[in-house]
Amino acid sequence: MAVTRAVLERYVESIRASGLSIYDSIEVGDPQLWLPTPELEALLNGSLNGISLTGLPLRTRSKAVKERICRALGYPVPTSFRKTRPRFPGQQFDTYIQKANNLQIWNQQISPTRRYVLIRVSGTDVVTKVKVVAGDSLALLDTTGTLTKKYQARCIPRSDPTELVTPCDTDRLQAHVSDQDIRLPSPIDHPGSGRLFSIAEISRRLSTLVGQSFPDVGHDQERNRGAALHRLVCAALGYRTYQDDGQFPDVRNQLLEVKLQTSPTIDLGLVRPDDEHPLDVPMLGQDQVRHRDVRYAIFYANTDGRVVRLTNLFVSTGAGFFTRFPQFGGMVLNAKLQIPLPVDFFDR
After folding, report:
1. pLDDT tens digit string along 17-29?
2. Per-residue pLDDT band at 91 (split at 50, 70, 90)
3. Same domain, residue pair 250 and 165
4. Which of 115, 118, 143, 231 gives the lowest tally of CB atoms within 10 Å of its CB?
5. Per residue in 236-256, is it b (16+ CB within 10 Å) or e — as a string?
6. Are residues 108 and 155 in the same domain?
């Protein structure tokens, strides 16, 4: 998603004019004051990249970074930083300075609604890159399967290769869908009122993928396997380009999450699809988008180790997800809070 300097400056000026501190609450999706993840990441990269932390003790280094973040976002620098969780409650994010690809989160669980600002520093303590990732996306980076709690559901295909589980969008989203031709920008651009396909239209377009195949890159390459499917999905929806920034939902522009299943167990991460919490996107008119408003495209597939063949498609709102896919009882509980980041994490 291309974020222009003018857009970023408008956010900063609005925050500065508001007189709010980093501890004052902002409604998620507020078009003037809430910084969506792509804009937050762009601002922090522009402000932090290239600064040197050489010679600073750990606590001093952390304070210096937080002071710079305050100035970058338009907030006044507090005389002292409170030990809140998260450290920046107004914009709901924590900061972590990373010299190695081993993220350690001490004495707390990952919060699905919190943002995690990961600041990469070089061997000489110079900031080289900032990545902002939501808690539910961060949980998916664990490769050991022992990270934290997660929700799961079960997918059992029936005879019909395409199932529109919920024929209509949620009430909140229906006012913002359109039956007209929609000019599609980038798959990771923010959604806009009147520029959303209906869930029925999404199902119609994606149903053309059932029966198609793509090379299987191996079970240990789930991210690449998923990327191959995402490319097909973007093309079927009508996008001219494919983009995926690793944030939820996969096709942010259409509030669409895509999942590939070669087994019945659906991993859902830290947030239930029918969750009422707000989603980190700008409001649609006066409506705040929630997780339950997101549309899900579940592709079931089989593989012989060389080729993945798509056999079934299920399309559902988050609100209606569990009417078709029964949830496993409770949450699957794991406890590890030490996350090995992928070697290319900061290069994406």
Report:
1. 999 999 999 999 9
2. very high
3. yes
4. 143
5. bbebeeebbbbbbbbbbbbbb
6. no
